[in-house]
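Chapter summary example.
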Amino acid sequence: MGFVSPATDYVEQRLTIDNLCGIDGNCRVIETSCGWAVINVAINASSGDTLLVTMDGRNQFVKLQGAALITEEGEAIEGDYLDDVKVHGVLTHTLNSVKNDGCPAI
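The structure predicted for these 106 residues follows.
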């Protein structure tokens, strides 16, 4: 019969991408041209958030500004045009590949 080692009080968890980025069952990790993006489907979007959406048959990241979506080209999508937009979730983290260090930040 033994006793519990007092050293177990100082054992730390291993660092993983799941722990660092808070990836859970509500998150999706997708590959991008620069690495990966973590999308949370359960977060309610608020002004200033980056969203993953499908518009015109392709996925893209947009910024939510009030009632409008701002694309990477600076185009504002608002009003009736939002009916054709499918929102997949809120971008929570980006993981850039070290092989593609020339990619711009999202």
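To summarize the output: The chain has one domain: 16-98.
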